[in-house]
Amino acid sequence: MRIQIINGPNLNLLGIREPEIYGKRAWEDYLKDLRNRYRDIRIDYFQSNLEGEIINMIQEVGFDRDGIVLNAGAYTHTSIAILDAIKSVSTPTVEVHISNVHQREEFRRHSVISPACMGVICGFGLDSYTLAVQAIINKVANDAEEE
Ligand code: DQA
Fold first, then answer.
1. How far does residue 8's CA lie from ligand 1's centre (Å)?
2. Is 97 a catalytic residue?
3. How are strands ordered across the β-sheet holding 119-122?
4. Nearest alpha-carbon partner for 133 in 100, 105, 83, 92
5. I want to staple 128 with a disulfide (CB 3.0 to 4.6 A). Which of 78, 81, 89, 124 is the partner?
6. Is 22 a catalytic site residue?
7. What value does the mean pLDDT of the chain take?
8. How confident is the model at residue 40 (pLDDT cuts 50, 70, 90)?
9. pLDDT greater than 90 at residue 147
């Protein structure tokens, strides 16, 4: 099983950026723990601050991975191009947010990408990614059972 995590703009600053909202933990430290927890699964990671690079990555991995875990950052609220990219591929995407976007500014309450996603997980800190990985594993197991 192979899962792709994609982080969008400003998420390269996790641990430094607004720690009261996004926490103090460095991403690399969290990712190491996540990979240790799911040793049987290959978890690839990509981050970009650029919309086009996120789209390129969705297209690149979107036909042969078991799932994409996507935190599109602020593009979540604006990017029809990312919405279209998610729709264009066959791999299911789980939308993730570290913070509970519904408790924050009004403009964060709307996601343009959610309609194309398998589900949305938000508000659990970095654990949101763990929950998304688990959701993909559960889906793969359920799909296999149905076959
Ligand atoms: C975020 C929430 C977005 O509104 C914000 O622009 C981010 C991070 C989150 O993980 O909570 O960059 O996606």
1. 9
2. yes
3. 42-47, 2-7, 67-71, 93-97, 119-122
4. 92
5. 124
6. yes
7. 97
8. very high
9. no
Instruction: From the CA of 10, give the closest atom in ligand 1.
Output: 12
Write the pLDDT tens digit of every residue in 73-113.
999 999 999 999 999 999 999 999 999 999 999 999 999 99
Counted domains in the chain: 1
Output the CA 139–ligand 1 centroid distance in Å: 25
User: What's the average model confidence in pLDDT over 59-71?
Assistant: 97
Select from 10, 82, 97, 114 the residue to mutate for testing ligand 1; criterion: most ligand atoms less than 8 Å from CB. Answer: 97
| CA atoms within a 13 Å half-sphere pointing along the CA-CB vector of 108 | 15
CATH number at residue 75: 3.40.50.9100
- Checking if the pLDDT of 133 tops 90, the result is yes
CA–CA dist 61, 67 (Å, integer): 9
Residue 108 CA: nearest ligand 1 atom is: 4
